[in-house]
Amino acid sequence: MRLDRFISERTEYSRSEIKSIAAKGGIKVNGAPVKKPDTQIDPDRDKVEVLGNELRADKFRYILLNKPDGYISSTDDGDGKTVMELIPPEMRTKNMFPAGRLDKDSLGALLITDDGDLAHRLLSPKKHVSKIYIVKLANPFKSKYIDIFSSGITLSDGYQCLPARVKNVENSEKLAFIELNEGKYHQVKRMFAAVENHVEVLMRVSVGGLILPEKLGFGQCMELLHKDVENLFEPLDFDAFCSDFSAVFSAILINNLL
Ligand code: URA
């Protein structure tokens, strides 16, 4: 396969951009710069790097973004800055889109991929891929939320939510974790509004069995490996997650508010 075709199928770069990056030594095959874009490569055996990023032969690409405040989860920039702008061109392919939505002011784990089938499975309520969020509430957490949410709370428009788990972060009045198995519009915010509270900050910290890595700062992204993608469909134990990660994520949330 031609090197420029391999790169153009896996990035946002056009053939002419690839030519100019190659001319400047930005493309390496098996560690050595290659200046001729028509060089033949074997995608299964050769290691191709563009500006230091390895491009794998896999058909699809999966990027985990730690979404910052102020970006919309869309490919269409009609309404402002989109999360796609945060993905460097050498990590992006032409058909990528956010698999799921976070509100413009929400933070945290967002998968961006060109694998439509995986995105569909991830979002389907039948697949039970749970998502865990940490929230900062305006008013103190009440223990009665646990039973109200677990029996399926009804929202102001009459929608009855699937049972959800919620738990306050130890030693904190206003921080809580909530686990959902569905993703309706503004769902977490509307669930807390239905118990007369208000979500001030919301951050998604896991998608299925994939936990947002602590080292991934807001606005940063990383390419997922095959095993991470498989992890998306593994169940996560909510109680164990809350005890293992409450210190990490509450510190991240509190530091973000300062
Ligand atoms: N629930 C919300 O209210 N907002 C999000 O961004 C995600 C879940």
The CATH superfamily of the largest domain is identified as: Pseudouridine synthase
CATH topology tier name of the largest domain = Pseudouridine synthase
CATH architectural label of the largest domain: 2-Layer Sandwich
Strand percentage = 15-25%
What would you say this structure looks like, in words?
With 258 residues, this protein is of the alpha+beta class. It folds into two domains: 3-55, Structural Genomics Hypothetical 15.5 Kd Protein In mrcA-pckA Intergenic Region, Chain A; 62-257, 2-Layer Sandwich (Pseudouridine synthase), CATH 3.30.2350. 26% of the residues lie in helices and 22% in strands. The chain contains seven helices and 13 strands. Strands 5, 6, 7, 8, 9, 10, 11, 12 and 13 form a nine-stranded mixed β-sheet that branches. A hairpin with a 2-residue loop joins strand 1 (27-29) and strand 2 (32-33). The longest helix has 20 residues, at 238-257. It is elongated and about 65 Å long. The termini are far apart. The structure holds uracil. The site of uracil has 8 residues, from helix 5. Uracil is lined by residues 102-103, 106, 186-189, 202.
